[in-house]
């Protein structure tokens, strides 16, 4: 039975991106359904399958899983050969730590630099709390790479759930031209070179829906191509 993933707009939905890119990179077959935010269908269609009335939602037969990190944990159990968590116990524990830190934190960054895959790359001034989030994330990525990432270009070598959790941060850093170090930029380039990333980005740019809350400096920075 094919897995089904209910998601929000690919232009804006950072939480939807996380399981979508994990499944795409891992080669896990699934069908996605985009339900636009603020549409008449959103509350009805998503509310029927999600306990929170939010996206994403993974449907596996009679099983319904909402919350991005819960979906990633379910996928790791259902498809162990995908190695969405590292094999080594120390690396796996640390991957879960940093994934949970992303899930629970960095609110200033999220609020000030909303995910927007259609926005042109133009710098936005950062507040001190956002700058602190950027520095923390850079340090966190550098630590993962130094301790566990020597076998490949991602946080723990091969792409996995921790990378999926931070994929929207890569988008934010890129979209708002955040000043980062060369090691951070190399990691971002590895994520953005993924075919799955490019597929999601192309789909997001083509979406017709516009939501003012995520267009922080409309219209000068919007990508109309």
Question: What report would you give on this structure?
Answer:
By secondary structure, the protein is α+β, with helices and mostly antiparallel strands. It has two domains: 3-82, Glutaredoxin, CATH 3.40.30; 89-202, Glutathione S-transferase Yfyf (Class Pi), Chain A, domain 2 (Up-down Bundle). The protein is 50% helix and 8% strand. The chain contains nine helices and four strands. β3 and β4 (63-66) form a beta hairpin. 39% of the residues are buried.
Q: What structural class do you assign from the helix and strand content?
A: alpha+beta
Number of helices: 9
Quick check: average pLDDT?
Answer: 94
Q: How many E strands?
A: 4
Alpha-carbon distance between the two ends: 37 Å
What is the fold named in CATH at topology level of the largest domain?
Glutathione S-transferase Yfyf (Class Pi), Chain A, domain 2
Give the fraction of residues assigned to helices. Answer: 40-55%
In short:
The chain is of the alpha+beta class. Helices cover 50% and strands 8% of the residues.
């Amino acid at each position: 039975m094919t897995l089904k993933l209910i998601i929000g707009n690919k232009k804006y939905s950072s939480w939807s991106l996380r399981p979508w890119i994990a499944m795409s990179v891992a080669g896990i077959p699934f069908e996605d359904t985009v339900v636009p935010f603020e549409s008449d269908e959103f509350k009805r269609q998503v509310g029927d399958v999600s306990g929170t009335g939010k996206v994403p939602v993974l449907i596996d037969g009679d099983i319904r899983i909402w919350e991005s990190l819960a979906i990633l944990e379910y996928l790791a159990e259902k498809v162990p050969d995908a190695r969405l968590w590292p094999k080594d116990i120390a690396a796996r524990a640390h991957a879960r730590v940093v994934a949970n830190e992303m899930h629970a934190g960095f609110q200033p960054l999220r609020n000030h630099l909303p995910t927007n895959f259609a926005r042109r790359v133009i710098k936005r001034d950062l507040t001190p709390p956002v700058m602190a989030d950027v520095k923390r994330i850079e340090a966190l990525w550098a630590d993962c790479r130094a301790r566990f990432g020597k076998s490949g270009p991602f946080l723990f070598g091969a792409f996995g759930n921790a990378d999926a959790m931070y994929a929207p941060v890569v988008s934010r850093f890129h979209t708002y031209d955040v000043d980062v170090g060369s090691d951070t930029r190399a990691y971002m380039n590895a994520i953005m070179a993924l075919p799955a990333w490019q597929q999601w980005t192309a789909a997001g740019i083509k979406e017709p829906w516009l939501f003012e809350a995520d267009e922080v400096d409309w219209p000068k920075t919007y990508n109309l191509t």
